[in-house]
């Protein structure tokens, strides 16, 4: 009879036995009623200006807001490599989430002072690490293990974008193949987080090969994602429309039509496709 002995440190034992705050209900439309799961690795992909960073920030917003304001009250760690979204954008999304939640909750009234207090309270649950080159990014990823151990309330790690420095690394003589580059970074990211039962979210451009390949696994599997959210701009034929309402109305309709996108969500549970458009209040589902 073969016996296997697995040694673990006190740190690993503590991480394995500890329970982090749940992210259940983070986004029922995209991730399901019971999702996301601990150890989920969610890959958001798409071309420029389709909402990759916006979707990631909306999840951050929902997580860090307190439950009385429409959130989960969970801490989030964001590694920002693209610097596409400002703090102003995050504040706008926080305000939009509170406004929508208030509209659905009878007897709840938002005042300017309450909004300000709620935003300050939410931002206390967000840790942002700004990185400006691949060395910064890799160092931040390697530091996640110790950081997560010291912050047991963090349940989500977001990297926007995991492939931000590919071209500069390629010019410097680094890895040439996109799929190898992505898998190396994702593997390091998973190794730094696998003991801590956190959800990992990362964004990448659509021209990078998916880390999910053609299969999904709902257990830790270094170098592969468990859910893929693919965002795309819908191509619409807007020619031949009536111009009787004038040029201004036609231009408005054209903008509305061109601002329609689709999100394809793939996982071990299946696939679904949703439509959305992007406003200053974030992604609005149709």
From TrEMBL:
GO terms for cellular component: centrosome; Rad51B-Rad51C-Rad51D-XRCC2 complex; replication fork. It comes from the Eukaryota. Residues 15-210 form the RecA family profile domain. GO terms for biological process: DNA strand invasion; double-strand break repair via homologous recombination. InterPro entries: P-loop_NTPase, Rad51_C, RecA_ATP-bd, XRCC2. It comes from Frankliniella occidentalis. This is DNA repair protein XRCC2 isoform X2. PANTHER family: DNA REPAIR PROTEIN XRCC2. GO terms for molecular function: ATP binding; ATP-dependent DNA damage sensor activity; four-way junction DNA binding. Pfam families: Rad51.
């Amino acid at each position: 009879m073969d016996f296997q002995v697995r040694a673990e440190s006190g740190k690993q034992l503590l991480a394995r036995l500890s329970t982090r705050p749940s992210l259940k209900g983070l986004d029922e439309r995209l991730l399901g009623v019971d999702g996301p799961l601990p150890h989920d690795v969610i890959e958001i992909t798409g071309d420029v200006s389709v909402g990759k960073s916006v979707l990631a920030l909306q999840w951050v917003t929902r997580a860090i807001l307190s439950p009385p304001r429409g959130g989960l009250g969970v801490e989030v760690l964001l590694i920002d490599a693209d610097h596409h979204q400002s703090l102003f954008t995050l504040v706008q999304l926080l305000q939009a989430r509170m406004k929508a939640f208030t509209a659905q909750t009878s007897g709840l009234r938002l005042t300017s002072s309450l909004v300000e207090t709620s935003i300050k309270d939410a931002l206390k649950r967000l840790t942002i690490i700004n990185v400006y080159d691949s060395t910064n990014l890799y160092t931040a990823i390697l530091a996640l293990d110790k950081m997560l151990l010291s912050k047991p309330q963090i349940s989500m790690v977001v990297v926007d974008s995991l492939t931000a420095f590919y071209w500069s690394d390629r010019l410097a003589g680094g890895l040439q193949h996109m799929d190898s580059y992505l898998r190396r970074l994702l593997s390091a990211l998973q190794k730094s987080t696998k003991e801590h039962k956190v959800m990992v979210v990362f964004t990448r451009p659509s021209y990078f090969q998916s880390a999910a390949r053609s299969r999904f696994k709902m257990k830790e599997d270094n170098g592969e994602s468990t859910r893929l959210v693919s965002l795309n701009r819908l191509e619409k034929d807007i020619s031949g429309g009536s111009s009787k309402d004038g040029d201004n109305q036609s231009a408005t309709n054209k903008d509305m039509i061109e601002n329609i996108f689709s999100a394809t969500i793939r996982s071990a549970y299946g696939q679904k496709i949703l439509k959305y458009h992007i406003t200053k209040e974030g992604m609005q589902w149709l």
